[in-house]
Specification:
Elements: H1 6-12, E1 15-25, E2 34-41, E3 48-52, E4 62-67, E5 76-82, E6 85-90, E7 96-100, E8 106-107, E9 110-111, E10 115-120, E11 129-132, E12 135-137, E13 143-147, E14 153-154, E15 157-158, E16 162-167
Antiparallel strand pairs: 1-2, 2-5, 3-4, 5-6, 6-11, 7-10, 8-9, 11-12, 13-16, 14-15
Length: 179
């Protein structure tokens, strides 16, 4: 196995550090303080992942690859929980990113199982992600995908680029590129 620092591992996982500042935080009472970094994610379509804070209801905080540049909605605090395990917290709303593994059905004909949303106040299994070279895996052991084939809207909210934990292997839509 290659020897990598956490930063190197995260770069391989396609998380690009957008700020040099780090903070000491504790995400769970049982966890010791860890060093966290501000990161942004860039999908295969060349766009940054945003937490959709203008969306309402069950779509609030949906992660979508849709921004041409990094602003507040495209910044996440990444904290290591252990070897190859991280959490992501939206810098814009202060909530942790969850893989919605309880979602079923479709929105406008498009699957929503495993949708990523910045909505949790604490870290549980749905808020933990495994870094796997160039991709992220959720608690369902599936890779996070940017749904670049989704089109249209649902209740006025765009779905193109929605992040979902649904792939069994790594392809272009599961790779998050650096800046």
């Amino acid at each position: 196995m290659r020897r990598n620092t956490l930063v190197r591992l995260l770069l391989c996982a396609a998380l690009s550090v957008t700020a040099a500042a780090t903070a000491m935080v504790s995400t769970t009472p049982a966890q010791a303080s860890t060093t966290c970094s501000t990161v942004s994610l860039k999908a295969a379509n060349g766009l940054y992942v945003s937490a959709e804070l203008g969306y309402t209801g069950d779509d609030y905080g949906m992660l979508r690859a849709r921004a041409a540049s990094v602003g507040p909605w495209e910044q996440f605090e990444e904290c290591p929980l252990g070897p190859y395990t991280i959490t992501l917290r939206s810098e814009a709303n202060g909530l942790y990113v969850s893989a919605e593994l309880g979602y079923t059905g479709t929105e406008n004909g498009m699957q929503i199982y495993g949708m990523l949303r910045a909505r949790a106040t604490s870290v549980g299994p749905w808020e933990e992600f495994q870094t796997d070279n160039e991709a992220l895996k959720a608690a369902n052991y599936l890779y996070v995908t940017a749904e670049l084939g989704y089109t249209g809207t649902y209740n006025g909210m765009a779905l193109n680029g929605m992040l979902r934990a649904r792939a069994t292997s790594i392809g272009p839509w599961e790779q998050f590129l650096g800046q």
